[in-house]
Amino acid sequence: MKNSLAKARPLPSITLDDVGGIPEEMKEEIFQTLAILKDPERSEKIGIKPPKGILLYGPPGTGKTLLAQAIAKEMNASFFSTSGSAFNEMYVGVGASRVRSLFQNARKQSPAVVFIDEVDALAGKRKPQGGGDESEKTLTELLVQLDGGHSNDGILFIAATNRKDMLDEAFLRPGRVDFSFNVPLPDTKGRREIIDIHTRGKKLASNVVASFDTLADSTSGFSGAELSSLFETASRRAVRNGQDMIEKSDLDFALDRTILGSTSRTLKDP
Ligand code: ATP
């Protein structure tokens, strides 16, 4: 596991066009941030410091990891990806040394994005009296690494969480986390975009395509991950039945499956 933390992962060719349902203002801010990151010299001339850290927060399956990958791809950066829980170690100093080597390796391969999912497991609120336990030492090392880098050293730190409220305030300070973006569950328009993304290149019966507006309307509360899995399930069923395209019955089957899989949801009548 130590080695996997230290290595950059090859990235699939994802761009921001592969992420649907992102609010317009957020997209605009991401494009501005990317322009600064891609041309740090110009930004410095103008007097803008490139951001060092971005926080993406929101419910599970809304595309936070996808967005981090797309940002790295747009920056042409190496992608170091791990989860906050990978630093939870009972042995003295191990968590902190993992944080150190993650950033050291990223600096060697800059430009690089260091992505930490479930960052609340690493940067949760510290006890007010300061317990000084291992997890606090690991967080302190993360803060040291975030403070230690220069704003133009080619490292962008991206953290993701479902629980922003759990994060330590020191971690959220500007200069460590410069932007926080809420990545919400998609609205109807967003769901329609995500349906288009996940049906690109798929062979679909015409009544399936004709049902997309209704589908977007009726799937309130679905995340991008659930919409993606809907079309995966429908595609697998079509293959299993020896069809050469996805039929409406495959989609209906997949919808039933997804709804049954979620105890808290019923389809909204459009
Ligand atoms: P978690 O909080 O559970 O880590 P996440 O927000 O990081 O989830 P992702 O891992 O990015 O969610 O999403 C899982 C998959 O779901 C993606 O690889 C993609 O196929 C699909 N998906 C999720 N959100 C979107 C979106 N906004 N647009 C397109 N596809 C999406």
Describe the structure in your own words:
It contains 12 helices and 5 strands. Strand 3 (112-117), helix 6 (134-148) and strand 4 form a beta-alpha-beta unit. The longest helix is centred in the C-terminal third of the chain and has 17 residues, at 224-240. The chain is globular and about 60 Å long. It is an alpha/beta fold and 270 residues long. The mean pLDDT is 88. A 5-stranded parallel sheet has the order 2-3-4-1-5, sandwiched between helices. Helix 11 crosses helix 12 (248-261). It has helices at 2-6, 24-38, 40-46, 64-75, 94-108, 134-148, 169-172, 188-199, 206-210, 212-218, 224-240, 248-261; strands spanning 53-57, 78-83, 112-117, 155-161, 179-182. It binds adenosine-5'-triphosphate (ATP). Residues 19-21, 60-66, 117, 160, 162, 194, 197, 224-225, 228 line the site of adenosine-5'-triphosphate (ATP).
Number of strands: 5
Q: In what range is the share of β-strand residues? A: 5-15%
Helicity range: 40-55%
* Silhouette: globular
Ligands bound, unique: adenosine-5'-triphosphate
Radius of gyration: 21 Å
Defining traits:
single chain; 47% helix; globular; binds adenosine-5'-triphosphate
Please give the structural blueprint.
Blueprint: H1 2-6, H2 24-38, H3 40-46, E1 53-57, H4 64-75, E2 78-83, H5 94-108, E3 112-117, H6 134-148, E4 155-161, H7 169-172, E5 179-182, H8 188-199, H9 206-210, H10 212-218, H11 224-240, H12 248-261
The structure holds adenosine-5'-triphosphate.
Keywords: ATP-binding, Coiled coil, Hydrolase, Membrane, Metal-binding, Metalloprotease, Nucleotide-binding, Protease, Transmembrane, Transmembrane helix, Zinc
GO molecular function: ATP binding; ATP hydrolysis activity; ATP-dependent peptidase activity; metal ion binding; metalloendopeptidase activity
Domain AAA+ ATPase: 50-187
